Amino acid sequence: MRHVTNLILHRLHSISNNNKKSVLMEQFSKNFSGITAAGDHFKNGLITKSMMSRGISLRKAVAVGVILLLNIVCSLSVVAQDEITIDEFLQHLSPLVQQVQEDFDKGDFQSVEKTTNELLSLFARLPKNAQEEYKQIGGELYFALTVCLSAQNKIVEAVNALETAVKNYGFNDYSRARRELTDESFSDLLGILRNLNRQENHENIEIPLSDAGKIFGLSKCWSEAKYNFVYFDRLTFNWDSLYRATIPIVLATENDFEYFRELQRFVATLRDGHTSVGWNHRDLWDNWATIPVVTRLLDGKMIVTEVLNDELRELQGIKRGLEVVSINGIDAHEHVLTNIKPFVFSSTEQWTNLIAYGRDATRGNRSESIRLTFKDDNGRVFESTISRTMSENEIPQASLFNFELLEENIGLLKIDDFWRNNFTGQFDAIYEKILATDALIIDIRGNGGGNSNNSVYVLSHLTDENFNMSAWSSPRYIPAFASWNRPREWHFGEPWIGQPARNKPIYDKPVALLIDESTFSAAEDFCVGFRSMNRGIIIGTPSGGSTGNPIGFNLPGGGWVQFCSKKDTYPDGTEFVGVGILPDIEVRETVSSFLSKAEIGIDNSYAKRKAIEVLKTRIKER
């Protein structure tokens, strides 16, 4: 997102006269500062990582992550030399940005698509010489339309839009297109882009990193952390010493994959779930393949929770509930501790365990099989060698909202995430059913977050008073103060105040909230608002313990690094990042209770049963 903003600012400088430039730049920067930060957050993979860990396809995850690109690019076309003055442009700018932001906040891709097409129509009305001069803007607009259409599964239209961007407007960003458009239908056009890049830039993106490139990438991570990582002051070790010790390690790496893994190990020492290193090279993903077996830490054991290949299930007897005793002959816990946890980006031990004992535990080179030793409930131990090239049954995507009526007219509302399309519309569609209940369980276990505005929207229906969301702050760096050895200062953001829903009845019945270690990011923001309004009881286990806003930077070799730049707390300053949202009643699941819904189709989890028990009492007390 940042390089797109730079393009916009460059275009504004080139078309604005000296008298109008300062006003225009001030107005433009004001409107786009928040969008740029949000765009970095989505682009750099927090939601993508969360969705992929729960079985959602890479294409859909990335498409949602980059949709913020539209907010930047959709506001560009009026900047070019259209038959309007700068004053007229200024009049259009703010409402345009506001409209696009509102559409994005609602997850309304159709409206964003409509706005993009309208802007493309404006671009087409420019004089031919202006269109040629600002051809790059046309290419960006058509690429933005491609991503938006792809996110809606309109693949044929998306391919046509990309073809227009490439052939008519000279769009040539192969790296970005390859990263964001993974459907096979784009392969021919991606091939054209790849060849164009090699011809025009005289570089082959497959060339391994040089020693200088490796040092620069490591140095970029080291230096940017000092100024941008919001929790840098909390480090209990010497960051400079670790940097120096890592230099010979990265120089000794034999390929780019090993290099990026060492960068991951380096940055993971910061211990933050919104801080990470990744790569865009599709080739490197061959080193990051896994097997069609999903696992999780339960009762202190690594337990199989899902088998996504019929052969493994039917011919090899691998099923839910089996314990993984060892991996490639190494004790499962030792393997996770030694080979997986050092690379996990996490603020808490519970999130570390969720990731490390999950699918990351069996990742490796696609060409190499992995050997697992299993133990069943009867103590029988058997071994299976599983290929990382095995096909995988796609996990059906859960409904955004799932509502059901339980005993005593208690409603159960499962919210799968806070990012999906038409979030508010889908909630409104079931709200009448919620109003008809005598009590409500809201289940956000497994909710990896998304758009915090969506979490506020749900909360706004639970109270008739304003309510506080998270408080936030971010450090300021002032060189003169540093020269005087003064501690860095902090900027404290405006309080985030939620307001009750308007022109709707408010749900005022008893409510219980279910959370666990996979409740993360915007879902934790939901918990903060829920607790601050004193609306009900929270049941389960501590949440993942990480939220914030990352700032991202590109690395040599097609990589990227991001650092959490914003500190979030409860409104009174109490911290939950690095701790987790602590439940009022802690209830831990056993293997059988956790697997109950998958095995018998009914959620018999202890947390749900405890919530029903509590709400029955609250109903009687009313």
What does this structure look like?
- α1 packs antiparallel against α2, α2 runs parallel beside α6 and α13 runs antiparallel to α14.
- The N terminus is likely disordered.
- The chain has 24 helices and 20 strands.
- It has a 6-stranded mixed beta sheet with strand order 8-9-10-15-16-20, sandwiched between helices. The chain has a 4-stranded antiparallel beta sheet with strand order 5-4-6-7. The protein has a 3-stranded antiparallel beta sheet with strand order 1-18-17.
- β2 and β3 form a beta hairpin.
- With 622 residues, the protein is an alpha+beta fold.
- It folds into 4 domains: 200 residues, no CATH class; 76 residues; 100 residues, Pdz3 Domain; 221 residues, 2-enoyl-CoA Hydratase, Chain A, domain 1 (Alpha-Beta Complex), CATH 3.90.226.10.
Q: Determine the number of helices (DSSP H or I, runs of at least 4 residues).
A: 24
- Tell me about the biggest sheet? 6 strands, mixed
Shape: globular
Which second-level CATH architecture of the largest domain applies?
Alpha-Beta Complex
Secondary structural class: alpha+beta
Q: What is the distance, rounded to the nearest whole angstrom, between the alpha carbons of the first and last residues?
A: 51 Å
Query: Strand tally, please?
Result: 20
The CATH topology of the largest domain comes to: 2-enoyl-CoA Hydratase, Chain A, domain 1
Beta-strand content estimate:
5-15%
Mean pLDDT: 82
Radius of gyration: 25 Å
Report strand order across the widest sheet: 8-9-10-15-16-20
CATH hierarchy, class of the largest domain: Alpha Beta
CATH superfamily of the largest domain: 2-enoyl-CoA Hydratase, Chain A, domain 1
